[in-house]
Each structure stands twice: as C-alpha cells, then as structure tokens.
C-alpha cells in the first residue's frame, strides 16, 4: 500500500501504537508529523522513521492545550503544504473507580486527552482534510464497547470517541472525507507504565489481559498500524463510519 506524497499527522507518536503508525506510514512513503510531549522519546521515534522513510516533522506538544493543538495543525501544513490523514491516537488510561475521591479530576483529565483534544484537532484539521479529500483514523479501545472496572472515565471517553467518529463521518461524507475508528484490545505498549506502575506490575497486568482473550495473545503495535494504514489508504475508499475491533477476541467474552 502506497502513501507516497501523502501527509499524515499522528498524535501520541512518541510511544507504542502511535510510534508504530508513524513508522508504518513513513515506510509506505508518507511525510509524517509526529506529536507527543516527551521530546527524548519523540527523538528516538524520529530517528527510527528516518531510517525507513522521509524525515518526520517532530512536534513536541500537549494535545489538551488549545494553543498546542493549533500549533500542531499549523506547523504540519506549513512544513508539508497539505494534510491528507489525521490519526488521533494520543490517549491515557486511569486506575480509579467512581467512588474515588479524585474521580472528577481523573475524569476531566481523561476526557480532555482522549476526547476533547480529538474534537478540537479534528475541527482545526477539517478544512485541510476537505481540500485533499483525506481521511481520519481514530484510535479508540475495546473498552469503548465493553466496560472494565476502575476505568470508567476511559470507557466513557472511548465510547464517546466511537460515536463522535460516526457522527462526523456523516458531516464529512458529502465533502469526500472518510472517518474510521480502530478499537484495539490489549497491545504491548508503555500504557500501563505511563499510569505509574512498575514494569513488573505492567507485565503482570498484560498477562491477565492475555489470559482474558480467546486467542490468548497480546497484540504488537504494528498490528494496529497495519490496520490504520489500510483504512487510511485508497483500498478503503468505500469505508467510513466503521469501528474495527482488533482485540484478539476480547469482546467476545467466554472467560
Ligand atoms: N495498549 C493498549 O493495550 C491499548 C488498548 C486499547 C486502546 N489503546 C489506545 O491506543 C492509544 C495509544 O496508546 P498506547 O497503548 O500506545 O500507549 P502509550 O505507549 O502510553 O502511548 C500513548 C501516547 O499518547 C501520548 N500522549 C498522552 N497524553 C498526551 C498529551 N496530553 N499530549 C500529547 N500526547 C499525549 C504519549 O506521548 P507523551 O507521553 O510523549 O506525551 C504517547 O505517545 C491510546 O489512545 C490508547 O487509549 C491502547
């Protein structure tokens, strides 16, 4: 699949799934802009991308800050002249339940990162995507469809993201812009360590998730990147408003 001469903006590309998407799209010939807050991690991803494709544009930014969101879209278009694909991937999980004292603080932070930032970045990118008849790939979660405990804010943010994606797919369709969503199950990334857990605890949690999937496996980030590449490419020209589960069967239950 070729994305030669296409311009792709990937948020949350300093790590995990976003880093794999940046790499995969660059391999396919795209010019990629990668976004995250941690400059050291972005630098490493940038070096890896430059080995397989065009040197990426690195944007150190916090997607929850409106000024940063404006800079993300403006700098990408200034550097590459166009925008064909927006991948809204930046996201955080939590570890609190609804009775926790800090429930609302966590909820506000999760919604700001996982949903509000996506809405604002999409709004800012819309005129550029309409110009190129481009598309959007949103990275949601299986927990947007089936709930889990101690993560109500995350579940709500991803369910909201799924329905937001379907609603804007309708707004964009007459303008030739497609919008699709990927809902991964467990994927081996830094997401648990980024919650403050040790690597040993993260490994234990991933093992529990692995046992909870019918396929008894954890995905590699590249599996999600492959699906994102397909959805962003012309092969998916007739696909919009879809939610693709890539969850090793987790949502089937059967535990
Ligand atoms: N791993 C899984 O099992 C799994 C399952 C289902 C869905 N997902 C979803 O997949 C997406 C990627 O997660 P991941 O597993 O790859 O986790 P990860 O390794 O923790 O990566 C998360 C990325 O989001 C970025 N990010 C977080 N908050 C940000 C902010 N305010 N501004 C800018 N960037 C921000 C992080 O960059 P900085 O830290 O540099 O800011 C990092 O690049 C998320 O939306 C997540 O919900 C993951």
Automatic annotation (TrEMBL):
Q: Which InterPro entries match?
A: NAD(P)-bd_dom_sf, Sc_DH/Rdtase_CS, SDR_fam
A single GO molecular-function term is: oxidoreductase activity
Q: SUPFAM superfamilies from the xrefs? A: NAD(P)-binding Rossmann-fold domains
| Domain of life, per lineage | Eukaryota
- Record's Pfam families? adh_short_C2
**Keyword Methyltransferase set for record:** no
Q: Which UniProt keywords apply?
A: Oxidoreductase
What is the protein name for this chain?
Uncharacterized protein
